[in-house]
C-alpha cells in the first residue's frame, strides 16, 4: 500500500516536470525504474523476514550507502524543473559512484562469508547481499534514466556527465 502511494506521489511530481508528448514516455520510463527500486526493497524485506534475520547491523554500511543513493536520486529528480545541469549531474554522478561502492562492499562481505563453514549462514546472507546489490543496481539504472531524460530534454552532450 505504501509503495503504491509513493508511486502515485512520484508520478505526480514527474507529471509536473515533463510536458511534451515525448515526455510522457520519459515519465513512464522513470516511474518504471522507480517501481523496480520499490520492488527490490520489497524483496529484500521479504527475504529478511523469511530467513528470520532481524538484526541488520552487519549490513549497515551498505544500507547507509543505499539511503544516500536514494537521497541523491530524489534530489536529482526534484531538480528537474530547474533544468540546471550543475545541480542534476553531480547527483547522477554520486549515485554512479555509490553503486560501485555497494558492489565492492558486497564482494568483500561475500569473501568474508565464504571463509566460514556454516553453509546455511553463508547462503542466507549471500542472498541478502544479492538483494542489496539489486537495490543498488535499480537505483543506478534510475540515475541513468534521469541522465537520459535530462540530456534528451536539454540536448546535453554525453561528455558533460562523468
Explain what this protein looks like in three dimensions.
It is a single chain. The protein is mostly helical and 162 residues long. It contains 5 helices and no strands. It has helices at residues 2-17, 21-50, 60-78, 85-114, 119-154. Helix 2 (21-50) runs antiparallel to helix 5 (119-154), helix 3 (60-78) runs antiparallel to helix 4 and helix 4 (85-114) runs antiparallel to helix 5. The radius of gyration is 17 Å and the shape is elongated.
Write the layout of secondary structure elements.
Elements: H1 2-17, H2 21-50, H3 60-78, H4 85-114, H5 119-154
Helix pairs in contact: 1-2, 2-5, 3-4, 3-5, 4-5
The gist of it:
By secondary structure, the protein is mainly alpha-helical.
List keywords for this structure.
81% helix, mainly alpha, 162 residues
Assign a percent range to the helix content: over 70%
| Secondary-structure element pattern, one letter each | HHHHH
* Overall geometry: elongated
Q: What are the low-pLDDT stretches, counting only 5+ consecutive residues below 50?
A: none
Report how far the terminal alpha carbons are from each other: 37 Å
Number of strands: 0
Radius of gyration: 17 Å
Based on helices, strands and strand pairing, what is the structural class?
mainly alpha
Oligomerization: single chain
Number of H- or I-type helical stretches: 5
* Mean pLDDT rating: 83
* Major beta-sheet overview: none
Sheet-strand content, in percent, reads under 5%
